[in-house]
Amino acid sequence: MKKKFIYGIVFIVIIITITIRLIQNKKELNKSKKIIDKTYIPIAVLTTKVQKEQMEIKVTFPATIQPYEEVKMFAESSGMITSLNIQLGQQIQKGQVIGTLDDRYLKINLKKAEINLNSAEINRIKLKNDYLRAKDLYVNKAGLEIDMLTAKNNYENAENNYHSIQNEINLIKEQLQNSKIVVPLSGIVSFNNVKNGEFVNIGTPIATITNISRLKATVFVEQSTAYLLKKGDTAQISSTVFGKQKLTGKITYISPVADVNHNFQVDLLVENKGDLNLKGGTDVMVSFIIDAKKERLTIPKNTLMTDREKPYVYIIENGLAKERTIAVGNIAGNKAEVLAGLENGQQIISSGQINLHNGSKIEILKNESK
Predict the structure, then answer these.
(1) Residues facing 324 on adjacent strands
(2) How does strand 187-192 pair with strand 91-92?
(3) Closest CA to 59 of 267, 191, 223, 216
């Protein structure tokens, strides 16, 4: 019995010891979970100043580069093509004769007309002399008026016939000239419609000539941009196919009338120089820099807080961070234009904002230079 009593006492002591230990552990755990009031613990931040400066505002639009000059050659006369010396991709020059139409019948008709003209000339001279004699006799009362009038009529008919044949000869010569296929523009043959031996009528397409020494980029801009551009301004042209290389285009045309979408057409001239060898139909991006000289109130873009409906920044008042809602305009690079809500020279927080709320106590580490 005595041993059992001792064992019981020991067991109770162990239980009490374990219980006391568990209670102590619980108190320590509860103490570690207690929320620490950090309201008065300063949060380290960096600051910068709002300032006025020139800010390049860049607006970018998609465009397609097209040849600045491109013409379609048409047959100016009807006939069979007896020669055509062009190939796709061939470089040809303005005024170059690249082919001819069958002109045998025209040459025969020209020869006949020239013979007729010679006969008409002889006849015209004879009838003119006849008329002058009849007129002289009539004036001197030695001839009849009817003879004079008949001679005059014969001479006038001969004169008209002579000029008619002259016009016929000029027309045949023009047709002979049109039977030659002459290049109207220096460039590259980009399309060839016909071949030797084919018969063509007036207006039949023969070939397309493309001049890519100069090209144009056509863009459509909204009216707010159109009113800031003027003829002669330059723009930067880029494309994924150009890599890092940039081109410069000069504005040659701004449409005076908007399209149905209230956009204005703007054409830019691009010189095809360098090693890019630009091709028509290339998709590019055209960037205009507008209002580059105008001073604007700006802040670094990283100072903006945009987790709410309206953007805001943290300003400093009496050592505390204060939220300030602002109106933001253009954003270019790492700069944001401030339209309202801040003043020039005002100090704002540029780093550490993630830990702040309205009224947080702060400790300024240093001022950032813009």
Answers:
(1) 313
(2) antiparallel
(3) 223
What integer pLDDT is reported at residue 30 of this predicted model?
A: 62
Q: Which of 287, 286, 98, 271 is nearest to 189 (CA)?
A: 98
- pLDDT confidence of residue 90: 92
C-beta separation of 288 from 235 below 8 A: yes
Low-confidence ranges of the chain (pLDDT < 50): 35-37, 370
pLDDT at 370: 45
Backbone angles phi, psi at 284, to 5 degrees: -135, 170
357 by Cβ neighbours in 10 Å (0-12 / 13-18 / 19+) ranks as exposed
CA distance 322 to 224: 35
Helix 145-178 vs helix 104-139: crossing angle, to nearest 10: 160
Q: Count CB-CB contacts under 10 A for residue 150.
A: 14
Which residue, 212, 234, 225, is CA-closest to 265? 225
What is the DSSP annotation of 147-161?
HHHHHHHHHHHHHHH
* End-to-end Cα distance, the chain: 90
Q: Tell me the pairing of strands 234-238 and 282-290.
A: antiparallel
Mapped onto helix, strand or coil, the DSSP state of residue 293 is coil
d(CA 297, CA 28): 55
Distances in Å between the alpha carbon of 229 and those of 68, 247, 253? 21, 18, 10
Whole-angstrom Cα distance, residue 76 to residue 122?
35
Question: What is the reported pLDDT for 58?
Answer: 81
Backbone angles phi, psi at 70, to 5 degrees: -155, 130
Place of tokens 């055209």: 286
Dihedral, 217, 219, 225, 230 alpha carbons, nearest 10:
40
Residue entry with tokens 């006391």: 20
Q: Which tokens hold the place of 273?
A: 């120089």
What does the pLDDT read at residue 293?
66
| CA–CA separation, 325 and 309 (whole Å) | 10
Q: Is 76 helix (H, G, I), strand (E, B) or coil?
A: coil
